[in-house]
Design brief:
CATH topology of the domain at 8-196 and 238-267 and 308-323 and 343-351: Rossmann fold
Shape: globular
CATH architecture of the domain at 8-196 and 238-267 and 308-323 and 343-351: 3-Layer(aba) Sandwich
Largest sheet: 7 strands, parallel
Number of strands: 13
Number of helices: 12
Length: 353
């Protein structure tokens, strides 16, 4: 039985992992949830309109879910800065709201949205006496040459390959330097895929993109390798189903409510892009048809060729649930969500188009 009680805040709650988390909370009977996100038309930030996801698609993520209130993210941020108790007390804050684009080039925007806002939310939650759980990222590990250890003593050795990863690293380091990591939890999500990611554009998982390609052309395009030690399609990633990701996330508010620090969230296995792509075709009952294309120059120096989460720290915290096998995860996603165009929480009739 869940030990999570009281009011819950989910920032970025209309997004991918955020909406999946609300779905999982609903499955446990939780309804007293306040959701923040950006659903109003995009506003300029210091004269620049940031690249925004499909907000109507994000709105659809929320339609089947149960929650007490929705507040625009900028309104929530402004008001709690002025009136810390304006929305009451929250027993748990899941801070999943951030710019997740690995190609975002506006460093000032990322510094404000991903670093400063997380710092403000963490400080506010700690002052309120709530549980603060936030999204870090496996992008902080860069090319992996410094390892993928979630031990805090290894934090300073990491060198992210993009501004997004750096913005996440910056807060992790800040939290460590200020002693916060003993009282809060930062989750380093690896390659998460699953329902409710349609709004993410180019940041969607290969499963989502490949499904659309197969519908259109019957084939899937994968990047060629630009390293001699990896053959085309044999670059490896740790792919994690979103249903497993939210189980792990909730673990730190329920069965491990006193754990603190950084934790890798992944399957603990590295699979090739070819393995993943073949699983997509198998879920559709089609033979694999794959083409290899040149990787854009923009990505060539910033591409992770191998990721695999060391989840021993997660296991040591008491998380003992088995991971959903990759082929089974892909089959569930494709057949129960992508084909019927269904959102998490939607019934077959409501989700079908």
């Amino acid at each position: 039985m869940s030990s999570l009680e009281g009011r819950i805040l989910v920032t970025g709650g209309a997004g991918f992992i955020g909406s999946a988390l609300i779905w999982a909370l609903n499955q446990r009977g939780h309804r007293d949830i306040v959701v923040t996100d950006f659903l109003a038309p995009a506003k300029a930030w210091q004269g620049v309109v940031p690249l925004s996801a499909n907000r109507e698609e994000k709105r659809r993520n929320l339609e089947p879910l149960a929650f007490a209130d929705f507040v625009e993210a900028d309104e929530f941020r402004t008001r709690i800065a002025r009136e810390p108790g304006a929305y009451g007390r929250f027993s748990a804050v899941f801070h999943l709201g951030a710019c997740s684009s690995t190609t975002e080039a506006n460093a000032a925007y990322l510094a404000d949205n991903n670093f400063a806002y997380t710092r403000e939310m963490a400080s506010w939650t700690l002052q309120q006496g709530g549980r603060f759980i936030y999204a870090s990222s496996a992008a902080t590990y860069g090319d992996g040459t410094a390892g993928m250890s979630d031990q805090e003593e290894d934090l300073a050795r990491l060198h992210p390959l993009n501004l997004y990863g750096q913005s996440k690293q910056d807060f992790d380091v800040f939290a460590q330097q200020h002693g916060w990591l003993k009282r809060i939890v930062g989750l380093k999500y690896f390659n998460v895929f699953g329902p409710n990611e349609d709004h993410k554009g180019d940041m969607r998982s290969l499963v989502n993109k490949a499904y659309q390609q197969i519908l259109t052309t019957g084939r899937v395009q994968l990047f060629k390798s630009h390293r001699p030690d990896y053959r085309d399609g044999e670059q490896k990633r740790d792919f994690l189903y979103v249903k497993d990701a939210v189980e792990m996330t909730l673990h730190f508010a329920t069965t491990a409510p006193n754990a603190g620090g950084l934790f890798n969230l992944g399957s603990g296995e590295a699979n090739t892009w070819l393995t993943l792509t073949r699983a997509i075709f198998a879920a559709l009952g089609r033979p694999p048809e794959i083409d290899f294309i040149a990787m854009p120059e923009l990505l060539q120096g910033k591409y992770q060729y191998f990721t695999q989460a060391d989840i021993s720290k997660l296991r040591a915290s008491g998380y003992d649930k088995p991971m959903t096998p990759l082929a089974e995860s892909v089959k569930d996603y494709v057949q129960n969500y992508l084909v019927p165009r269904r959102k998490l929480g939607a019934t077959a009739a409501a989700g079908s188009v």
